[in-house]
Specification:
This protein is mainly α and 50 residues long. The chain has 2 helices and no strands. The longest helix has 23 residues. It is elongated.
């Protein structure tokens, strides 16, 4: 088996810059899901009391 040696390619810098711009933590989605869960839970509790 021949050794695997990595050689940088010409588009690596562009790909890395693109990934740095795209990869973000999904805080908005996490907050939205948490808000939806709390709201639906509260709605079900209020619906059950009446």
């Amino acid at each position: 088996m021949k050794p695997m040696i990595w050689h940088p390619e010409q588009n690596d810098a562009k790909v890395n810059q693109y990934l740095e711009n795209i990869n973000r933590e999904p805080w908005l989605a996490i907050f939205a899901m948490l808000l939806l869960f709390v709201s639906s839970f509260t709605f079900l509790i209020l619906l059950g009391t009446f």
